[in-house]
Amino acid sequence: MAVVRGEFTSRFGFLMAATGSAVGLGNIWGFPTNAASNGGGAFLFTYLILTFALAYPALMAELIIGRYARANAVTALKTISRGPKSRLLAIAVGFVGILTVSLILSFYAIVSGWMIAFFFDPLARFLGMDGVAQWLTEDAELRNSIFVTLFMILTVFIISAGVRDGIEKWASRMMPSLIIILILLILYVLTLPGAMDGLRVYLVPDFSRVANPQLLVDAMGQAFFSLSLGVGTMLVYGSYISKQENLPTLGGLVALLDVGIAVLAGMLILPAMYVALASGVEIFDESGGLIAGPGLIVSVLPALFNSMDSVGMFVAMAFFLLMTIAALTSSISMLEVPVAYAIENHGVERRNAAITIGSVITVISLILVFNFNPLFDLVVTYTTEYSQPLLGLFFCIFVAWIWRRDDILQEIKQGCPEAEAGFFWKIWPFYVKFICPLAILAVYFQS
Ligand code: PHE
After folding, report:
1. Is 225 near ligand 1, meaning CB less than 6 Å away?
2. Which of 62, 213, 325, 388 is the most buried (most CB within 10 A)?
3. Tell me: the pLDDT tens digits for 154-189?
4. Pocket flag, ligand 1, residue 104 (CB < 6 Å)
């Protein structure tokens, strides 16, 4: 089945797409509150170390496999296998990856749908449509169904257009906008009373917390989720990188941008929470910790925006636009995983693949919407706490224990001829072979 494969047209295009995948709700929502409740700067410090010592090597494993095989996860893992047993394992890991990422998308789309609804809320209020505004912000099945479907339509629309005209084009538009909106929001929030208290909570390290095993588990989970690892997303994006590009550098830039934007997001969220506190909004839960779950985004921050005068409307819309963009550049990378498989291995036309698979995932989302209470948390836990790290472990095993070392080196040397003598090749093979699998296992059993 000869299918013409897409390829990113430029380094910038790939960087925006991959950073777009990495930067999502996990960075803007998860990271800041994780940091605040785990010793502030101390968490940041641990997170930085884990990202570069563990998540970056795993990211490189996916990018290298992808670019070498120029194929979706199932085929790519099969390509680097060396016998019937490893080929079977390749198929299993590839399929579990596809299933996991589809399930991640099914819950991610629900939360992303809330972001769109909250984006329209200030507008409805401004137009005096208070009933509509209330409907938009009330957690109801009908609202959730409509917005999850809308979000999935946007995702399918972009993926249907392909690698260049869909993923690359839209990520290159959306990511710079995201960074600009984020910086403008930070600059504004930092001028408000209370902001500095939030900044202090966020940045002043409490090193007594670093040795806490829970902190390590949280930081590692955060790092893996944030770099979109283990489910074949980065592998598929890697398969669209030109052979002329220097992979270790590109991967390093993606990790750096991902961490950088998470750190920036903390400079928005924590100060905003303490500004809310200063204007009388409750920001602590019963146990005395900062409100971190859905309450943060759907009640604390909207309460803050409402307490601001007329600028509140613009700030609220900018914030939820930021969240929607972050979510969309991630969701497209999720949908691309099963779509690439359907196109390459079953000869399905891209648009049909995107619409069909997108519809199936939407149906799963709707099932979650209507059975929210037991199912939502279950799917989140199963996919992000169990499946994702374990799959990450298998990707490392494939690269370090199954694939031929020489093939890996040849692949890295394309676009980076001096690789063999470089720092990366001295350290990375050892990391993916021993350190990453052991660390993932340790964290896995901890949690
Ligand atoms: N990295 C994304 C985020 O931080 C989530 C994601 C997970 C994207 C897995 C793709 C695959 O929100």
Report:
1. yes
2. 62
3. 999 999 999 999 999 999 999 999 999 999 999 999
4. yes
CATH 1.20.1740 fits 11-446, yes or no: yes
**What residue owns the CA closest to ligand 1's atom 8?**
228
- What residues form DSSP beta bridges with 290? 284
Long-range contacts of 293-298 (CB under 8 A, 24+ apart): 294/111, 294/114, 296/29, 296/33, 296/269, 297/29, 297/114, 297/115, 297/118, 297/323, 298/114, 298/118, 298/137, 298/139
Read off the pLDDT of residues 238-276 as tens digits, 9 standing for 90 and up.
999 999 999 999 999 999 999 999 999 999 999 999 999
CA 320 to ligand 1 centroid distance, Å: 18
Specify whether the CB–CB gap between 166 and 13 falls below 8 A.
Answer: no
Output DSSP code: residue 282.
-
Integer angstrom CA distances of residue 103 from 155, 337, 368, 377, 433: 15, 12, 10, 12, 29
Domain chopping of the chain, boundaries: 11-446
Q: State the Cα–Cα distance between residues 123 and 54, nearest whole angstrom.
A: 43
55 CB-near residues (< 8 Å, 6+ apart): 220, 223, 224, 226, 227, 229, 255
State CA 24 to chain mean position distance: 5
Rounding to the nearest 10 degrees, give the CA dihedral for residues 60, 92, 77, 428: 30
User: How remote is the CA of residue 26 from the centroid of ligand 1, in Å?
Assistant: 7
